[in-house]
Amino acid sequence: MTKYNTNTICVQGGYSPKNGESRVVPIVQSTTFKYETSQNMGDLFDLKESGYFYTRLANPTNDAVANKITQLEGGVAGILTSSGQAANFYAILNIVKAGDHVISSSAIYGGTYNLIANTMKNLGIEATFVEPDISLEELRTKFKENTKLVFGETLSNPSLKVLDIEKFATAAHEHGVPLIVDNTFPTPIFCRPFEWGADIVTHSTTKYMNGSANSVGGVVVDSGNFNWEDYKSKYPGLTSPDPTYHGTVYTESFGKAAYITKMTTTLMRDLGSIPSPQNSFYLGIGLETLHLRMERHFENALKIARFLEVNDKISWVSFSGLEKDDQYNLAQKYLPNGSSGVISFGVKGGRQAAIKFMDSLKLAAIVTHVADTRTCVLHPASTTHRQMNDSELLAAGVSPDLIRMSVGIEYVEDIIEDIEQALDEI
Ligand SMILES: *Cc1c(COP(=O)(O)O)cnc(C)c1O
Fold it and tell me: pTM for this structure?
């Protein structure tokens, strides 16, 4: 499949039915799998044979969908998780432990920020946050002896900053650590971070990949490019015998699949954040139209951003597809065909005007979500960030008038008309 265009992989990747088998990926809604002999099953537990025995560790539906996403990203192995949060947690925890240090872009999703800044800190993992526009020289100074990875988001949620993947990958590789990139917003339709030097990619599949907002999920994909063996002492979990798996050395036994195999056999075994096969089925269906939806999301969002840009009730618009946007040049490099359908903007009149505008919308719904087929809006100052006063909001990079609009794939003129009538109400 990898020789095909991503559009073709969206439709047919990950699953090739044999003679007489189901054309559509079947939902294998079973926790367990039957074997003829104890020896058969023992070989699976010893990782001598590949096969299914318990859905927490592997399931055919989950595998088919993980394979499709792995092909879309151009990776060698991937694993689905029960949420995007679990994906980022596993991607990091797979190679760090108490006493280690990570470097992260500060322009990341709030949940991921909390994970790295607080929960991981409580586990003894220290973090340094850097602004995404940090110079390469300064970035180099942030590495320590115990730094194990660098983390960022291709297009950050909600601040919409484009990550200079090459810059972060260069610094990471100079210091012998991998770059992990959360590629949720652009999806592999608009950016394939491995092509720019990222080593591992994660997603909240809850967003565009599922696309219809019917199930929470995540994925981790490994490019297979980072050579753990070159930094043996830094990544003992991958390069030395695992006593909990008969002394398996993952890099020796599984080569380029070492990172994902270890994630399955240790983190999934011990922490267990697997998706239900039913949810993976929905994700697989969503992926079949990802290429069509992403194009329309971006096309609609660009039209709306251009409409807002010249409207005299709007104070500012942030969308990397606009020539005037401060992210435009980076977007031209990393996201030349589109970025996502998410726009943020401010209405003149501040917090009160923003609330009035939002409450007057009829087609666009107020929801805590982004990146599905239906246009939706969120006013962080009165919802997700409502405990902060105006000066605290500004310090957090969220202005009181900020509205985040996730543009859907409805007929764009209908969305614009809805925005127009709501602006008239201010
Ligand atoms: C939503 C989101 C997450 C968290 O994903 P869940 O599926 O909600 O757990 C992580 N990263 C980004 C960029 C997101 O947008």
Answer: 0.96
